[in-house]
């Protein structure tokens, strides 16, 4: 409600994403609908795990179903990884330099393999940092689906994992101002899947704009 008031006062500067309490999924879905229909918010911003639990759990399905119904995206934001092994060396591995991207990629792949996008084919996910390395792996992630060691072990989804990335996912430039990474993402997913993101105030917005302007 406080954010909605700020947006009302400065509509040319701000838009809002809902912050929900997923541990109570039905109430969270209702709050998402209120935030979108009454407050004019644009989607749901969530961490990649909720107290160590990943979002592919069946209990969270009502929130994703409501997001699809409302036609608003889910911004899958990184957080400290649920895997304790990456915390040994502190923030350098567990945080933004490495662990955040690995954690968000893990969450995204779990969402795909859970069959979420077969249940909610219109659902849109946004990933930061040029897709958290998934565009680089877009061919590799299909391997278990296309060439399983045992046909019975093929994941129970209706499309190749890469198709869900290309059809249900958008990525932002936030915090990944490296031209080879951008060109890989553009080639793998297409320019229409890349959105401007600055990651302000954690990253330098001027650096972001210089990077965009310097692209070939």
Q: Overview of this structure, please?
A:
By secondary structure, the protein is an alpha/beta fold. 40% of the residues lie in helices and 10% in strands. It contains ten helices and seven strands. The chain has helices at 2-9, 25-37, 61-70, 91-94, 99-113, 116-119, 143-146, 161-168, 179-189, 205-213, and strands at 44-47, 49-50, 53-54, 74-77, 125-127, 169-172, 194-195. The protein has a five-stranded parallel sheet. Strand 6, helix 9 and strand 7 form a beta-alpha-beta unit. Helix 2 runs parallel beside helix 3 (61-70). It is globular, with a radius of gyration of 18 Å. The termini are far apart. The mean pLDDT is 95.
Would you spell out the secondary-structure blueprint of this structure?
Elements: H1 2-9, H2 25-37, E1 44-47, E2 49-50, E3 53-54, H3 61-70, E4 74-77, H4 91-94, H5 99-113, H6 116-119, E5 125-127, H7 143-146, H8 161-168, E6 169-172, H9 179-189, E7 194-195, H10 205-213
Parallel strand pairs: 1-4, 4-5, 5-6, 6-7
Antiparallel strand pairs: 2-3
Helix pairs in contact: 2-3
């Amino acid at each position: 409600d406080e954010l909605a008031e700020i947006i009302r006062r400065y509509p040319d500067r701000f838009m809002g994403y809902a912050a929900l309490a997923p541990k109570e999924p039905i109430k969270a879905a209702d709050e998402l609908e209120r935030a979108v229909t009454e407050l004019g918010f644009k989607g749901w911003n969530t961490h990649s795990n909720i107290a160590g639990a990943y979002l592919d759990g069946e209990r969270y399905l009502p929130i994703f179903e409501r997001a699809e119904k409302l036609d608003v995206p889910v911004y899958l934001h990184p957080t400290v990884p649920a895997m304790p092994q990456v915390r040994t060396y502190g923030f350098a591995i567990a945080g933004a330099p490495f662990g955040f991207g690995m954690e968000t990629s893990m969450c995204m792949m779990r969402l795909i393999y859970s069959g979420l996008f077969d249940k909610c084919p219109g659902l849109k996910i946004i990933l930061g940092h040029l897709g958290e390395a998934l565009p680089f792996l877009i061919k590799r992630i299909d391997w278990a689906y296309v060439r399983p060691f045992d046909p019975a072990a093929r994941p129970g989804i209706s499309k190749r994992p890469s198709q869900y990335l290309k059809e249900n996912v958008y990525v932002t430039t936030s915090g990944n101002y490296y031209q080879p990474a951008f060109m890989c993402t553009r080639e793998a997913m297409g320019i229409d899947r890349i959105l401007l993101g600055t990651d302000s105030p954690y990253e330098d917005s001027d650096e972001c704009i210089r990077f965009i302007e310097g692209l070939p």
